[in-house]
Amino acid sequence: MERPSLEINLPDTHEEGKLYVVDSLNNLNKLNVCPDESQHSLDVEEDTGDTGENMAGSNIGNQCLFITFVLTLIISLALVSFVIFLIIQTRNKMDQISSRLLSEKKNIEELKKINNILLKHLNQSGIKD
User: Fold this and answer.
1) Torsions phi, psi for 31 (to 5 deg)
2) pLDDT band, very low/low/confident/very high, at 29 (cuts 50, 70, 90)
3) What's the whole-model pTM score?
């Protein structure tokens, strides 16, 4: 069984043609893999060698880490603000409910007093159930 080759066989091409094809494939790979802002840093890497490659890669990594950190802070701030808003709303509702309960308690006490007065009046007048 023959295994298919992953290499591109270029029949009848000269060395310059092969180098041109490889260079074109590398450029195409850079365009597909790298975002626009990091393309400039890749060009700098080619000029400077290994030390530039490490520095540019860490620069892109630091930018990505910084952006992630800022987005996390913004999202956290939004969530905390929402929680504080909910706490304030809940407190307002609890205050309303407690004031209603107090007024209902006063109404119930007044009704009990009226009921007791009516019972005393009925007992004094001699009307029985």
Assistant:
1) -70, -35
2) low
3) 0.42
